[in-house]
Amino acid sequence: MRVQWKGVFPAATTQFEHDQSVDLPATLSHLDRMIEGGVHGLILLGTVGENGSLEFNEKLDILRAAVDHVGGRVPVLTGVAESATRVACRFAADAERIGVDGLMVLPAMIYKSDSRETMAHFRAVAAAADLPIMCYNNPVAYHVDITPEMFVDLAVEPKFVAIKESSENVRRVTDLIGLLGDRYLIFCGVDDLALESILLGAVGWVSGLVNAFPDENRALWDLATAGRWDEARELYRWYTPLLHLDTHVKLVQFIKLAMVECGWGAETVRAPRLPLVGRERDEVLGVIRRAIDTRPRVAVEG
Questions:
Q1: Residue 122, in any domain of the structure
Q2: How distant is the alpha carbon of residue 20 from its chain centre?
Q3: Per the domain annotation, does 300 fall within a domain?
Q4: Residue 190 lies in a domain
Q5: Which among 164, 236, 239, 256 is annotated as catalytic?
Q6: 112 noted as active-site residue
Q7: Model-level pTM greater than 0.85?
Q8: d(CA 133, CA 157)
Q9: Is residue 239 flagged as an active site residue?
Q10: What are the backbone angles phi and psi of residue 121, rounded to the nearest 5°?
């Protein structure tokens, strides 16, 4: 289906059995819950989906199952995060054959490419599949920065449609629009900068905590995009301690723990990640449980 590049797109978790094998039924069931919560699209196999811990064929199995299960209810995108450009191109082509609706492309993993190499990687992946692409910029996590000036150079490729901006520098939203106007659609990629990014012109939000709080996430989006700023700020202030969990190196463990506390999924992650234990787990549980105990009403009237 045609991707409408607007709204809340969860970076969906991949669910695992206790032996760390992929639990497809649980993964698909949770996609249903988020669709019921009103998300506008789904992104499989991003950072939160533990892309880097999955084998190539496992990724394709997840995509096949998800595309079939979602059945066109919302667009399905996949992360493309491989260590070599050649492998990323092969994965993009395979994902297109499976029937995904778009790609979220990361720089090549492990090797920290310079600007020329980074743009060559993105152009190669774009040439490998006839799909629209969201370029994922996250220099904090991946140590490769796709600067606004680089996006000027990349603008000649029409498949580059959107930018997931996760630099944690909210000025980038204004800088990108100032340099490029509406050439790219800007998505916020940092949960605790969502409201600021929407105010500055972001038209979408790739969210992690939506996995645990889809109703509140959608309500915040609706309030902000309707210009109901006082109500949006009130909800955002409740939500922000949870959204801070998205900016930690253990965001996957934090988000899965929040899901379990809300009654969905399992904490199991794939090594080298391990479930939280001890004081760290207690502190995160405190944040999650305080939020649940003070959960606001989220009905949003049109």
A1: yes
A2: 22
A3: no
A4: yes
A5: 164
A6: no
A7: yes
A8: 10
A9: no
A10: -60, -50
| Residue 302: inside a domain | no
Domain residue limits at 55: 7-293
| CATH number of the domain bearing residue 148 | 3.20.20.70
Count of the separate structural domains present in the chain: 1
pLDDT of the chain, 302 residues: tens digit per residue = 788 999 999 999 999 999 999 999 999 999 999 999 999 999 999 999 999 999 999 999 999 999 999 999 999 999 999 999 999 999 999 999 999 999 999 999 999 999 999 999 999 999 999 999 999 999 999 999 999 999 999 999 999 999 999 999 999 999 999 999 999 999 999 999 999 999 999 999 999 999 999 999 999 999 999 999 999 999 999 999 999 999 999 999 999 999 999 999 999 999 999 999 999 999 999 999 999 999 998 755 44
Q: Are 233 and 194 in contact (CB under 8 A)?
A: no
Of 136, 142, 184, 236, the catalytic one is 136
